Amino acid sequence: MRQEPVYAQSTKPQPDEKYKSLSSYRGDTSLYIIENFVTNQEFYKQKPISVLLNRMEVPVKYFLLGPDTDDLLYSTNISICAYSSSEIERKIKLKKEPALIVIYWTKPILSTKIYDLLKQKGRVWNKDLADFFGTQIIDHIGYVKYPVNK
Fold it and tell me: Superkingdom of the source (predicted)?
């Protein structure tokens, strides 16, 4: 059964022939995320992040901002995961991939804009954050490679 996206902007999904549903991965959420959003990132490049968020069949439970400049004035990416921080730690201890993906956008965002939003709305992923980041255009997608044995 497909879980509806949580806190994503409503845009019509575009056809993506390489996309496979979560159910086809038989419970392997990490593989679902890596194959559909990292391996298949060409589909998402130059599209708003909301396209990816709407496609995800799992909710975002963890996110981390990526201030990529030395002075920390701008952020160029966000990391998202379908697992909470405690679930991520548990998966790493069990030598399982947590699939923390890093979405880089084309235009840096002033870090103060993000921090102001976080102060107002909290550090839990919500509709306001999805709406804010959803308008950013995807440059490329990577993931954090943990030293796990599959």
Answer: Bacteria
Which alpha helices (H) appear in the chain, and where do they start and end?
29-33, 49-55, 85-93, 111-121, 127-134
Evaluate the CA torsion angle 36, 142, 99, 61 in order and state its sign: negative
- Are the beta carbons of 44 and 141 closer than 8 angstroms? yes
90-96 long-range Cβ contacts below 8 angstroms, 24+ apart: 91/30, 91/148, 92/146, 92/148, 95/148, 95/149, 96/30, 96/148, 96/150
Tokens for 148, please give them. Answer: 């796990």
Residue-wise pLDDT tens for the chain (150 aa)? 444 444 444 444 456 678 999 999 999 999 999 999 999 999 999 999 999 999 999 999 999 888 666 777 889 999 999 999 999 999 999 999 999 999 999 999 998 898 898 888 778 899 999 999 999 999 999 999 888 755
